[in-house]
Amino acid sequence: MGQIDFSELRKKIAVETIAAERLQLLANGMTESFDLAPEDVTVMAESNGVLIFRHPEALAKSTVPITSKSVAGQTFQNNKVYVFNNLSEIQHVEVFEQFVQREGGVLPVQRMISCPIPGKNGPKGVLQVCRKGKSRDDADPFTRADTDTIISLAKIAGAYLWK
What we know:
It is a single chain. By secondary structure, the protein is an alpha+beta fold. 34% of the residues lie in helices and 22% in strands. Strand 1 and strand 2 (50-55) form a beta hairpin. Residues 96-100 have low confidence and may be disordered.
């Protein structure tokens, strides 16, 4: 699988004047790129020392402290991409499982990629995608190509999301 061309998405987000629409375009691009449900992609923005959920809607205005105790906080603090293909074995804040529920009920997050949104003076926020399932075997692992995809999406977010 080759690198995905996000030039069309970049153009759409760049010309959109409404911030909420830019966010929705990015979230849609994330769900399509990873073939995930909308509630399995997350966009967080840093504000006053915490990360605030901007997507999904169910978590809007919820916050995550920027500490090493949360995957998002660790991602932001270290300005580094993390791929967890064994998230169920790692201590993490279980926000997705508790607040973002699917029609079929609550499923635990098994795999996740967490990526900082780049800014001029450090990260502006964090993008995350997750795969849920009853067990780790029920969720496909993330690949290097998936990591490259989220990095590309984070660059678009950094350039256009909060302009």
